[in-house]
Write a structure and sequence with these properties.
By secondary structure, the protein is an alpha/beta fold. The chain is 41% helix and 10% strand.
């Protein structure tokens, strides 16, 4: 298993990864297009060269220098269900959430996410490891790999759903743009489609890589796979350029003197 926050080396992603798999009604790991995500060599090189120097998130990428929050899977699933129902925001954090000083694995995960966030201004605007709660890897399947709760400005995700570590911050980035009056993206399915497209633009088929682990079969007619396809289809939508431009300007406004 790769260290937390990383995949083995992968080819660079094209602007719009190809939709592969022929006419089969089922998707497997063979249906994953090209993707990009930091690998362990990227993380090690960044740590050796102090890539987070000057960033307020440098402690998160340094073992023993920041606190992280984790929650059991059941607590995370229940908390996500509140957000999905959109009727009751639920508690401020998943049940069973605890804090502890970050380990080397935690620091590696934070560094990988930091590097990944540099590929998208929307992700950069929304990523803040101090607001995240994670669940350690588990073989149990769940309907969702993570969720963002605007009311509490907190996001939860599974550590083994790597892309969720930037997918949920993208929702937060959009919310920050919305609150600043810079965009008018409808919440719900339209926002989800846009986040999928943003993920495709920045990282290629990374979300398919998360979902289509070896040995797993995905029905192409399922809502989850249709979301993947929607993201692929809309990766070159002009709204993605508009959002990235607005987010880059907002990052610069919030941090005019350099690293955020």
């Amino acid at each position: 298993m790769s260290p937390r926050g990383t995949f083995p080396p992968a080819p660079a992603a094209p602007p719009v990864p190809p939709v592969v798999g022929g006419n089969s009604p089922f998707a497997t790991s063979d249906d994953i297009g090209k993707y990009w995500w930091p690998n362990q060599d990227d993380v090690s090189f960044a740590q050796q060269n102090d890539a987070t120097y000057g960033s307020p998130y440098a402690p998160n990428a340094t073992p023993g220098a920041a606190y992280v929050r984790t929650a059991p899977l059941e607590g995370g699933k229940k908390w996500a269900s509140y957000q999905i129902s959109n009727m009751n925001p639920g508690p401020k954090a998943p049940e069973g959430t605890v804090s502890h000083l970050n380990t080397q694995e935690d620091a590696n995960g934070a560094m990988a996410e930091y590097l990944a966030s540099e590929r998208s201004a929307v992700a950069k605007l929304g990523w803040d490891p101090g607001l995240s709660i994670t669940t350690e890897p588990t073989p149990e399947k769940t309907p969702t790999g993570g969720t963002y709760q605007p009311k509490y400005d907190t996001y939860w995700y599974r550590q083994d759903a790597l892309a969720a570590g930037l997918h949920e911050p993208m929702h937060r980035g959009i919310e920050r743009l919305r609150q600043a009056g810079l965009i008018n993206v409808p919440k719900g399915s339209e926002e989800e489609a846009i986040v999928r497209a943003l993920m495709q633009r920045a990282y290629g088929d990374i979300e398919a890589k998360d979902d289509l682990k070896p040995g797993r079969i995905y029905l192409k007619s399922s809502p989850g796979y249709k979301q993947l396809e929607e993201g692929r289809r809309r990766a070159n939508d002009p709204i993605i350029d508009e959002l990235e431009k607005a987010a880059a300007e907002e990052v610069a406004r919030r941090h005019p003197r350099g690293p955020r």
